[in-house]
């Protein structure tokens, strides 16, 4: 298949072409950048939705419920799982796996799990590029499921249009999220396993934290950059952008609360489309991508045709005996790069 | 304080100098590379120990027990916490925090929590550099506590001399670890919260997995690169390197099993010192560091004096309307770098 034929088939939504393109991109095989460059002008139709939260929050079950619901609505859905604890990536309970495989048999669904290559929760550029492929192939929704522990939720938010943060009552995760600033990453909160004790309490805590955030912003005493320019009162029901993240109760294993979640995701889309924030968010995403792609291209050159590989190999012994250091070698490499010298 | 005075004070183990050096390194302030280059020949006396495992496994409590025990033995101990769920970094329960603060009041202990900057579990180069500072300042043990979910354990193993993988009975973590190949990262296994149901079972499962690994290796049917070249039988009690990771039971909250853990850490040190693997491991670590430091230096140049920043800013609008793409811009930047052109 020529590159042109591959691109045409991908844009026509043909699954074998998509699978081949994913493989090319994931493995950075020759031509992968040309392929991505060619489809770049065709991106943007898909809505990208992140589902994140701590291990055990039920993200995969919720993801499958969303996939099923969107399929019933006639939408094509792509799923990218970067969660090492997810059934999509091997951490499944048997029941989950069976459900997942039923979903995966549907030709309107494309599921891909991505290795995280050592930096857990670290969403690589190639993960984002696989989302591009799904977008280009005409999938209406691209769902990114990723484990959130600490700060990785913010990374998910930067790569999606809407991010759903899933928490569960029994762990201290709710409190953790409120403390660590992770809540800034959520466009929609979900308290999953809502049939368990503590769910209403967790919901109230999150609502309270949202109140406090709104209050801090209104008083100008906050440090939440993304919320600057607030004009409303502490008791206002929306952030300055006109969107206050709703806090929903779901029991994904019983398909409860899914309709409300779908409605919230759509409402968030409508709100940010109307106020121009969607465009701003996507532009920031593009800037991120340019930064990453440029850095990756230069790094690859550096260690192949560039001066780094040979210099580092030549200096390892000396560094091991303390005669030079990694920092001295870096200075040598940098001098070679600046002078355009090919070692 | 001149750079020379700072270096001298740091090497003399003076805590204010250490604190200042850590701040300089963490923030990549001017001179940080020169400082690290100057102390590079003085590194190696500290034993670096990783404590990793899933959230809730009790890593922080175990870390504090190790710190206390080493202090009683007269050793100075540095702790670097890159675990966002750790009490050192803010995710504390009150009891943990109080215990942590008691430890922190001891001048023979230096504790530093590191931000993970969005890539959770992602151990940055500056984390490793802070370990260098602790080593240079004469700390006998440098303990790195990090949350392990998925593959980040392997990263910890690459930055330490001995890595302790902490698991707990109640979660499926044991099984997860066995599945995902994470067990390759462990030099010592700890089943913590051993007073809970399921601890002996988890221990047996890990032992069984170690047996299977040894068997696979002996039959040559495994795919564990690190264990290649095995010559022993399936029932052998050690890996080809002569070290079979012990599986210990601890109840860190009650200080139970800590002596055995200390002995196992020392035994691992002795074993790899004797067979030359310690030197090999440290050399691989140095190669990693050189790679990272060179890459970082070139990347910083790229976005300051190099051609990337201006080109990317100039092309963002065009990329947003599809007239160019991140990949075309990367090619432009790379061409400028290769030609030694300063845009």
Q: Report strand order across the widest sheet of chain A.
A: 3-2-4-1-5-6-7
CATH architectural designation of the largest domain in chain A: 3-Layer(aba) Sandwich
Main sheet summary of chain A = 7 strands, parallel
Using a beta-carbon cutoff below 8 angstroms, give the protein chain pair with the largest interface and the number of residues from each chain.
Answer: A-B, 75 and 73 residues
Approximately what portion of the residues of chain A adopt beta-strand conformation? 5-15%
Oligomer state of the chains in this structure? homodimer
From the 3D structure, determine the CATH topology of the largest domain in chain A.
Answer: Rossmann fold
Q: Pairing-aware structural class of the strands and helices of chain A?
A: alpha/beta
Number of beta strands of chain A: 7
Instruction: Tell me the helix content of chain A.
Output: 40-55%
Q: Average pLDDT across residues of chain A?
A: 83
Shape of chain A: globular
How far the N terminus sits from the C terminus of chain A, by CA atoms, comes to: 37 Å
Order of secondary-structure elements of chain A = HHHEHEHEHEHEHEHEHHHH
Q: What is the CATH first-level class name of the largest domain in chain A?
A: Alpha Beta
Number of domains of chain A: 2
Radius of gyration of chain A: 22 Å
Poorly predicted sequence stretches spanning 5 or more consecutive residues of chain A:
86-95, 117-121, 220-238
